[in-house]
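Entry 14. Ran structure prediction on the chain below.
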Amino acid sequence: MTNAVERALRLHESRQCAAEVGVVTPSRVNIIGEHVDYNDGIVMPMALPMATAIIAGGNTAGRYDIHSEGFGTVVGSFEEVSATSEGWFRHIAGSLRVLRDRGTLPDSLSLTITSDIPQGAGLSSSASLCVGVISAVSELVGDEIEHVTLARLAQRVEHEHVGVPCGIMDQLAVTATVEGCALLLDCRTLNFEHVRLPNELMVAVLDTGTRRRLDTGEYAKRRASCERAAAEIGMSLRDSALSDLTRVSDDIDRRRARHVITEIRRVERVARALHDGAYDTVGELLNESHDSLQHDFEVSGVALDRVVDNAQRAPGCLGARMTGGGFAGCAVALVHRSAIDDFTSYMASDRNEQRASAIYIHHPAGGVNTLRLG
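Output, C-alpha cells:
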C-alpha cells in the first residue's frame, strides 16, 4: 500500500466514512510526442509513481461528502455538489456528471482524496484525478470499465466540464501503462504497445517550480492553429509531409504544423532507436523536440529553456526537453543509470542559472490500480 493510500485511508476513517474501495492513479511524463495527440499523432508517455489516492464508500446520510487533503471539503446533494465549479473541484464535479450520464452514479458517496503529484507541473495531475474518481465510483457500484472507455470518460470531463480541448494521451498514460515500459500510443486508432525502457536508462523529471494552467487560452490557440493548417493542407497533419506546408498561408500556423509533422516522425524514430539500443540517437531526438517546441510551437518558457540547457550539458544526460502542455512546469531528461548521482549533483549546483526546484528520478510505473477494502 502506497504512502498516499495510507494517508487517504487514515483521513477517510477519521471522517467516520466507510472505506470500501481504494484507487491509486499515477501521474505521467511524456518522453516524446508533445502537442501531437490532438493531431492524430503518435506519443510515448510513461507513468510515474507520484500518484493520486482515493478512498470511496457509501454514505448513510444519503449525501455526497467529498474531501481533498489539500483543498478542503464539499458536502451536499448531487445537484449541489456537481454545481460546484471552483478550482480543483471542477474535475471531480465533471467526473460525477459523466458517471451520472452513464447511469452508474450511486445515491450517496464519500470520497477522500490525497495526492503526491506536484500541481500545475505538467505531470497530468488532472487526468490522474479524473481517472481516479471515475475508477473509484465505478468499482464501488460494480461497473467494469476497460482502459480506452475509462480514458475517454476522463477526456470528456476535460472537454465538457473543465474547458480544456485536450487529446487523450494523458488519460491513457495513467490507465494503460505497465511497470517498466513506456506507452507507444497511436492517438488516431488508440492502438498501443508497451515499449520497455532499458534498465541502464533512467528518466529524470526536472521541476522548474514555475506553474501554468491550460484553460487560459494558449493551449486552445495552438490547437486551433493546427486545425487551420490541416484544413488548408486538406488532410490530417498526421498524414502530411513537410512539402505540404507550402499550402499553409499563415506563417504561425505553418510553424505550428511543422512542429507536429516533425514531432510525429521523432516519436517513430525514438521507438526504433530504443529497440535497437541506439540510445545516443534517442537523446538527440529529445533535444530536437525541445528546439521545435521552443521555436516552432512556442510553448516553452525562460525557466524551461534554462533547465533543459543545463540538463543537456549535465554528466550522463543523453538528451532533454520540456514536457507537458508547456509555458512552465517540468522538463524531462534521459540519463544513464550509472551517472544519476553526478547528474543530480550538477542540476542542483549553485553555479547553474536555473536549478531544478525538485528532481524526480524514475523508471516507468504501472497504470491505475484498484483495491477492494471491504
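The chain has two domains: 3-193+365-372, 198-362. Will compare against last week's run tomorrow.
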